[in-house]
Amino acid sequence: MRALGVLSPSLAEKLGEADKYVLEIDSLKIPLALIHVPDIELDENNENNSDMVLVKKKGFSLNYRDFGVIENAWHKLKKSDQDTYYPIGSEFCGEVLKIGKTVNNLKVGDYVIANCAYPIAPFNATPGIPSNHGSKELEIFHKGKLIKVPKNIPVEQAAGMSIGIQTAISMLRKADIKDGQNVLVTSVTSNTSLIILNFLRDKNCTIYGLSYSGKETKKVKEQFPFIKTIYNFKDNNIPKNLFFDAVLDPFADTHIVALQPNLNFEAHYVTCGMFNQSSEKIQSKASYTNLPSLISNLISKNIQIRANCLGTTEDLENGLKMLSRDGSSNIPVDEVFNRDEEINLFLDKSFLKTKKIGKTVFIY
What we know:
This protein is of the alpha/beta class. The protein is built from 11 helices and 17 strands. Helix 4 packs across helix 5 and helix 4 crosses helix 10. The model has no long low-confidence stretch (mean pLDDT 92).
């Protein structure tokens, strides 16, 4: 089977320059490659495997969180003197090959994606993202960590949407958007925000966007023409008399301080993460704002800050139903790669070295 992994120094040295990819995270230079490793098996008759499912991946993608996963893996692997690796990948779509005796929610031949339900997972499974190894061509999962994909959703979309859908639907639920409200979606070119915008199509409210750099916003506006205006964060060009009732923000450390003057009384501010994920950036930004001043301003307007980690199984099911019944709404996919020799092109787009709008997917 194949896997995309962070390589130990000794393993990286054995590969030619064209066969590996060097990812720079701050001062770190981290080697990655698509490598061939032994297959894994599932003995479905073993009682210890009664709740387990063997999945053959059909496609996978990387997520912004993979930057942190890769850095953490490298800090461990760089000290190793063995030829070893750490497989990466946050999202996937795969086919069920084998199931344990008590698995009744799935059958052989089903196409599945990860169920990242948090804080509670079905069938007493461990909550959260089921694997940091989504690129492993074969992988074993607990039955509560998988959900069947509707047949009319293609692999190219399914391989890059489980975290995004679960997060987007959960954030929209927490934002509690009412008819006629002003809604701001920040970082409109990010994958999370593109998925949020996809599910805002039918909302009876006024949608605004915010881009950090202002780049590629024309493509976003073409894909989501219901967005009234996309503002530029660097230019600080949001009108002072424009107030938002709900803000959906993937990167609170970038936006929350600057946006507080434009938050309406009792606005809902929902965020699911931070832009600065590497250890060096987190340390350098540790004192980026005056916390008492920020809290005081939020309190004075009764602003409701809602932190969001993933979502429920019901959130994922609702998102899949919406996508399945409405062919015009889909998860934006920028480009699909399907040859081993294209892995560096896939990584360039995944790590934002080349421009993209939507997910980048690798198909096995």
